[in-house]
Design a protein that fits this description.
The complex is a heterodimer of chains A (about 60) and B (about 280).
Chain A (H helix, E strand, L loop, with lengths): L2 E3 L9 H5 L5 E3 L5 E3 L10 H5 L5 E3 L7
Antiparallel strand pairs in A: 1-4, 2-3
Chain B lengths: L2 H8 L15 H15 L6 E5 L7 H4 L3 E4 L5 H11 L4 E7 H7 L1 H10 L4 E6 L2 E2 L5 E2 L23 H8 L3 E6 L3 H13 L4 E6 L3 H5 L7 H11 E3 H6 L9 E8 L6 H13 L3
Parallel strand pairs in B: 1-2, 1-3, 3-4, 4-8, 7-8, 9-10
Antiparallel strand pairs in B: 5-6, 7-10
Helix pairs in contact in B: 1-2, 2-8, 5-6, 6-7
The chains are: A alpha+beta (about 60), B alpha/beta (about 280).
């Protein structure tokens, strides 16, 4: 799993879900972001770049130290 | 260093989540400031972050550098003092559009005129968000605010032109949509010797967007994407197509103008030289 979500930081603004090109993310009924289709993630990093709350990070495979 | 490591390194532990509203652009701008500092690999003790009062100015409280959360509009005077006391410091001012152009407007133009080596990042969300959406000098003409329920009748400041006319030697603008460009511009601003202004066009979905029916946070970010024009394309754009749009990128840069702390040091050396 390459997406890391800090649920306590997420305020459910939905920016990451709107900019995700593969519809991986959605805001759930608790107004928190959730990876609904993680298998579709292409690790483009749009969510991490645009999240104003530092609540989602993309760790690319092969990127580990 | 990836983004998560940057946040862990440069933010004070236990201070997140921050107080900004859902979808507020301030988090993106502050993230870009941190990315710029990480890219330059500046030691934490060599950076001073000074802020005024307002939503954006809360940023200094989250960041793990030498920080001052100063008085309303007075971030630049505090920063001037810090810079003169220790010119080796990289002094970064984080301020809002109201803080920088209304309450601190006079300090802003005189810091530009002196060309003191500060990097000023103005979070421009077009409104006073924290106090409930009153208009600022950068609220676009015609936009609604709680103090302008029929629309703002005053013309708004073009901050980048103001800074250039007042004597700033590095002037740039980006938006929270253009986050990569924004952090690159902050890198250039920190490297520049002299006064640097980076206007960061940010969204306030709660106090500005809602009153002006601009949609949610994502729609406001798309508005930035659709209305910002990179400077190279802007220069070729016919006048009638510039209506309602604004240029982004490095808008003005000049090298070689005397920097204030250097001029001051020379003056001290000259005055003490005869003794």
């Amino acid at each position: 799993m390459s997406l890391k979500i800090y649920t306590n930081r997420c305020k459910g603004c939905g920016i990451c879900a709107a900019f995700c090109p593969k519809k991986v993310l959605a805001v759930n009924e608790l107004e928190k972001i959730e990876a609904v289709a993680p298998e579709n993630c292409i690790q483009c990093g749009q969510c991490e770049l645009r999240c104003p709350d530092y609540a989602i990070f993309v760790h690319k495979e092969g990127d580990e130290k | 260093m990836n983004m998560e490591e940057m946040i862990n390194k440069y933010f004070r532990p236990g201070r997140l989540p921050h107080i900004w509203c859902p979808g507020c652009g301030n988090g993106v701008v502050t993230g870009c400031v941190v990315k710029a500092i990480a890219k330059l690999d500046l030691p934490k003790d060599d950076v001073a972050v000074i802020s005024g009062i307002g939503c954006s100015s809360r940023a200094s409280g989250y960041l793990d550098f030498n920080t001052v959360h100063s008085a309303h509009g007075r971030a630049i005077p505090f920063a001037t003092g810090v810079k003169l006391a220790d010119p080796k410091l990289n002094v970064i001012v984080l301020t809002g559009d109201g803080d920088a152009t209304a309450i601190g407007g006079n300090h802003f133009i005189h810091a530009c005129r002196r060309n003191i080596d500060l990097t000023v990042v103005v979070y421009n969300n077009s409104i006073y968000g924290m106090t409930g959406g009153q208009y600022s000098p950068m609220t676009p003409t015609g936009s609604k605010a709680t103090t302008a329920p029929y629309g703002m009748i005053e013309p708004d400041f073009n901050l980048t032109e103001l800074a250039r006319a007042a004597g700033a030697t590095f002037v740039a603008r980006a938006t929270t949509f253009h986050a990569q460009m924004l952090s690159d511009l902050i890198v250039k601003g920190i490297q520049h010797k002299g006064f640097s202004l980076i206007e960061a066009v940010s969204a306030c979905p709660i106090s500005f967007g809602r009153q002006n029916k601009m949609g949610g946070p994502a729609e406001m970010m798309m508005w930035q994407r659709d209305h910002a024009v990179p400077i190279a394309a802007w220069d070729k754009l016919p006048e009638e197509k510039k209506e309602g749009k604004f240029p982004i990128g490095v808008l003005y840069e000049v090298e070689g103008r005397k920097e204030y702390t250097e001029a001051y040091d020379e003056l001290i050396a000259m005055a003490q030289g005869g003794k």
